[in-house]
Amino acid sequence: MIVIRHADVESILDGREADNIRTVTEAYRLHALGQTAVPHSVFLRFPGPGHDRDRIIGLPAYRGGDRPVAGMKWISSFPANIESGLQRASAAILLNSLATGHPEALVEASVISARRTAASAALAAELLTRDGRPTGVALIGCGVINHEILRHLRAVLPELTEVTLYDRARPRAEDFAGRLAVDAPGLRIGYADSLDEALGAHPLISFATTAGVPHTGLDAVRPGSLVLHVSLRDLHPEALLGAHNIVDDADHVCRERTSPHLAEQLTGNRDFIDASIGQLLTGEREFVRVPGRTTVFSPFGLGVLDLALAASVYDAAAAKGLGVRVDGFLPPPAA
């Protein structure tokens, strides 16, 4: 059994934004071709006061292809951590041997989770802006996820030269800008004083917030904008009905009172969903944008993406001799 620590994961994945996007792209393609197994995520919530917004989610998955992998991500979200200076989310991935089923690696997964989310958003942005590349992006929510999204966006959209930041806590946006000044020198950084101002700042928008219920529509966005609805619960369901909608998997995203789930409950169907990103990659569906209509990408975040990145981390760690080997974790073979 190998334990791969946070620092090892970070050292392996740093500077690999383009590789992360390729890994996620292949996972989506295999998913669309039926070469994955992705059961519904399990949501653990807590009864009683004090944990209303807290949850832990289990995401089991299997990816086929040339390098099969199976396992599970266990990820917590405790939003109050932010006020204590801790990261909102923490995660671990357990990888299982496909020969014996035995666990063979425990991987710290907060970096993996953030970067697979960012790679998914960047892939969508690259696919869905080919008719007109944006030069700026509005980031709504100034946390770890949007920081990674911007890194990955710049790997596929070199035209991006400007970012507008909006966060309900202005000091968080200012801290975020300070990090960007180091990570992305030359990038023009501005602030929005209101959500509507942020929505109208650029034709590319990324929501990465801790919103639990919808709080905004799309009236303030520019015609033809692309909205990366990563946090899934920001947009009123009625707003989705007037937009193009791309998802990662309709069965997964229409659950747990996400905005697409609420839109499905409102209409009684999923006709408002144009396609999955895997269908676009394989050519199963063609996406034709109505001029001027907003496009919304709502990715639930499939566990198979985490497993795909974790497998690449595990292989790199093995090749570099990284990780801590734990002997005696499993019972010995029978006599």
Describe the structure.
This protein is an alpha/beta fold and 335 residues long. It folds into two domains: 2-112 and 303-325, 2-Layer Sandwich (ornithine cyclodeaminase, domain 1), CATH 3.30.1780.10; 130-298, Rossmann fold, CATH 3.40.50.720. Helices cover 35% and strands 22% of the residues. It contains eleven helices and 16 strands. The chain has helices at 6-13, 17-32, 110-128, 144-156, 170-183, 195-199, 237-241, 250-253, 259-267, 277-282, 303-320, and strands at 2-4, 36-37, 42-44, 55-63, 69-77, 89-96, 103-108, 136-140, 162-166, 188-191, 204-207, 226-229, 244-247, 275-276, 295-298, 324-325. The strands form two sheets. Strands 1, 2, 3, 4, 5, 6, 7 and 16 form an eight-stranded mixed beta sheet that branches. Strands 10-9-8-11-12-15-13-14 form an eight-stranded parallel beta sheet. Strand 6 (89-96) and strand 7 (103-108) form a beta hairpin. The radius of gyration is 20 Å and the shape is globular. The two termini are 21 Å apart.
